[in-house]
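Researcher: Going back to the complex we discussed earlier. I've cleaned up the inputs and rechecked each line, so this should be the final set. Can you rerun the prediction on the complete assembly and write out the structure?
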Amino acid sequence: MTSRRTLAIALVHYPVLDKEARIVTSALTSIDVHDLARSGRTYGCSDYFIVHPVEAQRALVTAIVSHWTEGSSAKRIPDRKDALAIARPVASLEDAIAALGPGTEVWATAAQARSGRDLLSFARGRQLLSEPGPPVLLVFGTAWGLAPSVLDQAAEVLEPIVGLDEWNHLSVRSACAIALDRLCVRPPALPV
Ligand code: SAM
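Model: Rerun complete. Updated structure for the full complex:
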């Protein structure tokens, strides 16, 4: 992996959309805490912010993280401790941005490209990450995706991950892993 700007990930539970495109707060999915932490750790992310406005949900994140970093599971599966160590519950996306410092750039993700918004290609994103610059916060949604306000305020919106046809509604766990791989790892120069 090339040397790189600080890269962090965030999983947003508010503001996100529901099936009717209303702004809602989604419930935490505990496997998301583990899976995105493991992907983030694999690709050298400095932090994995779990954004939730409800204090009880943040307390649940804290309980999961401490169980796997200090509790019995830390002894049983030490590797997971390294991954969960980057997980940080925060009340808002603004708190995550503030934690990364001034100038932090938000790069949002979505399965559907929004009209009227230039998209950042993974190739260009990889290039930007390899050049000096402020921290990048790669933001993922839950429920039916990030609210338009998050996409509108983002410095960049990444191109959607596309497979064989237009059906591309990935789980957030899969989307995070694929996006990080495309942003952080030069295509392997293995002989064909
Ligand atoms: N409950 C669902 C789950 O378990 O995954 C949450 C789905 S949530 C809408 C999926 C999130 O993953 C999106 O907000 C976006 O951040 C990302 N995502 C999903 N499919 C994607 C794609 N094709 N390209 C880019 N990001 C995608």
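Model: Worth noting: The pocket of S-adenosylmethionine is lined by residues 109-111, 140-142, 144-146, 160-161, 168-172, 175 (CB under 6 Å).
Researcher: Good, that matches what I expected from the previous run.
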